[in-house]
Amino acid sequence: MKILVTGGAGFIGSHTVVELLNAGYEPVIIDNFANSNPSALAGLRQILGQDVPFYDADCNDSEALNAIFEKENFQGVIHFAAHKAVGESVAKPLMYYRNNLNSTVLLLETMQKYGVPNLVFSSSCTVYGQPEHLPVTEETPRLPAQSPYGNTKAICEDIIRDTVHAGTPIKAIALRYFNPIGAHPSGLIGELPLGVPGNLVPFITQTAAGIREKLTVFGSDYNTADGTCVRDFIHVVDLAKAHVQALRLLDSREEAGYYDIFNVGTGQGNTVLEVIRTFEEVNDLKLNYTIGPRRPGDVEKIYAQVDKVNDVMGWRAEKSLAEGLQDAWRWEQNLQLKKSIVAG
After folding, report:
1. How many angstroms separate the CA atoms of 28 and 57, rounded?
2. Active site annotation includes 149
3. What's its EC (predicted)?
4. pTM of the complete model
5. 5, 42, 219, 337: most buried by Cβ count inside 10 Å?
6. Number of domains making up the chain
7. 4-14 pLDDT, tens per residue?
8. Burial call 9-48: b when 16+ CB within 10 Å, e when fewer
9. Distance between CA 124 and CA 103 in Å, rounded?
10. Set 128, 149, 258, 303: catalytic member
């Protein structure tokens, strides 16, 4: 099966490309490097021992999408391509709505036109807002999103669901990720944010590497064990494997109109300070961090119940928080080594 991976040079996309190829699929990448780097393609080549077919294109470009679908005979699509920083979305909501919604609509239209039946959508636990009860299940009501980014994920889910239920030949699964961390164990691909990181772990690793002077913890007065936010941190390799399982599940479903959602997490919550202390412990170093004010758009605490994805999809998280933080630091060290070699 040939699978289109939009945003396949990004953090989760690149790791999913590895797992797709390992599972016998043929991944094809579309990416315009709006939030990724061409170096990911070199990393994939080293890991896989081969080049992955790649198109430098924007998923909002109808002409480009049609040309690619015309040339390739896709049997499925995994749709990662989106703007994804919570804080930036609060500051630039129209940019997020235009990019994230339009690209999803165009992709669905193109899939219908070329008869591509299977879609795995990269959604997010942000669609739950601040849930009233934890852990969250797939039946937990979606509350108003705390950010425009989260709202785009909820709206995209609805667009996909309505399209599937309208009698189109598309089957779809939305994976609601919790907080991906880590990197490939080789240290050859990982999270490479452009500019100031919006996520916790790359900010931790950049602080440890001396790129950032200090790490600011946003808020210490939440109703949690140590006052800092709680998240469900999942290793990116585990998350990538969930996409392979989702494709297998879609391929096994013969009925028209199949659409489902799955939480993808570990089922365990950790505070920001627990993550910092674990990083210090497993990597034998000290971080320079301070406590700052709360950040707009942040949810106090959220973690998953994962019974459904375990039972229906046959997937479960295998890697620990400590492994994720060790892999993230190995990736950061490799990045800095490459930079020093280039600098001479």
Report:
1. 12
2. yes
3. 5.1.3.2
4. 0.95
5. 5
6. 1
7. 999 999 999 99
8. bbbbbbbbbbbbbeeebebbbbbbeebbbeebbebbeebe
9. 17
10. 149
